[in-house]
Amino acid sequence: MIEPPLDPREHPFRADLAASYLEGKVDAARFADGEMVKVSAGVLPLHRKPDAGSGRDSELLFGERFMVYDRDGEWVWGQGQTDGYVGYALEAALSPDDGAPTHEIRVPRTHAFEKPDLKTRPVALLHMASRVQVDDEADGYCHVDAGGWVPRRHLAAIGETEADIVETARSFMHTPYLWGGRSSLGMDCSALVQFALLRAGRSAPRDSDQQERSIGAVVDGGVDAALPGDLLYLKGHVVMVAGANSVIHANAHHMAVAEEPLDGFLDRMGGLGLSVTTVRRVMG
């Protein structure tokens, strides 16, 4: 059997350089072990080329780890450790990988304030699933390595999860749609699914086609057998079943995260020549 070619979104390889763990699997002029760093910006775009105009393929969030394999001026090339996505990022928004996170952000977004006081200056904006180190607590706030104080209620200890993925998805209602976006400032369809699963303690690939191939179990009965929390995949898109005749998704029709009737969604997709190709159950 002929093995399918490796996906460059998931495997760091170029003609001139590849990750050491791919030696023997790909051809490259040289191989590198890489250097682990972490993201120090609230949101860091991940590009397909070392050029801000090359298109945003994804985003990295504060505290996420990133393996750097190559440096080219102000840009680095490497692989995100949350979902394995490969791309180029600006090195100025990365810092040494020093210490393990203790908590993560459990709400769509939150400010980190200069002092444990909501009237003081916000110094950082952090997003759901961002991992932080807490080193102090006072007056209902926690001081984190983003340089400020975050409301304690907006944090979850590492390992503390939210099982209701539909409610997590609903917390992003009206978030603007953004191709390649991966935060409450803007997100795409697969990012919404990814965050709902991350808060439930489950990992998920970045793009919808990757998710369709790999997460959960296929529901043999298709759409008619789908339950709340199940995922419906179409070509280039994913929606989450939210309830009886209801789905939630980040989409370009509403240009936002929206909940709408399932039958209306299916009719609209049918008008575009699209239909559900796979139903997956990821919880239960």
Key attributes of the depicted protein:
endopeptidase fold (from Nostoc punctiforme); globular; 3 domains; five-stranded antiparallel sheet; SH3 type barrels; 4 helices
- Give a count of the beta strands, DSSP E runs of length 2 or more: 25
- Classify the fold: give the CATH topology of the largest domain: endopeptidase fold (from Nostoc punctiforme)
How do the strands of the widest beta sheet line up side by side? 20-25-21-22-23-24
Shape: globular
The ordered H/E elements are EEEEEEEEEEEEEEEEEHEEHHEEEEEHE
- The poorly predicted ranges are none
For the record, the count of structural domains works out to 3
- CATH superfamily (homologous) name of the largest domain: endopeptidase domain like (from Nostoc punctiforme)
% residues in beta strands: 35-45%
* CATH top-level class of the largest domain: Alpha Beta
User: What is the name of the CATH architecture of the largest domain?
Assistant: Alpha-Beta Complex
Describe the main β-sheet briefly: 6 strands, antiparallel
Give the helix/strand class.
mainly beta
**Helical content (DSSP H or I, runs of 4+):** 10-25%
Amino-to-carboxy terminus distance: 34 Å
Average predicted local confidence, pLDDT: 97
Number of continuous helical runs = 4
Structure characterization notes:
The chain has 284 residues and is mainly beta. It folds into three domains: 79 residues, Roll (SH3 type barrels), CATH 2.30.30; 55 residues, SH3 type barrels (Roll); 117 residues, endopeptidase domain like (from Nostoc punctiforme) (endopeptidase fold (from Nostoc punctiforme), Alpha-Beta Complex). The chain has four helices and 25 strands. The chain has a six-stranded antiparallel β-sheet with strand order 20-25-21-22-23-24. A five-stranded antiparallel β-sheet has the order 8-7-6-3-9, with no helix packed on it. Strands 13-10-17 form a three-stranded antiparallel β-sheet, with no helix packed on it. The radius of gyration is 20 Å and the shape is globular. The mean pLDDT is 97.
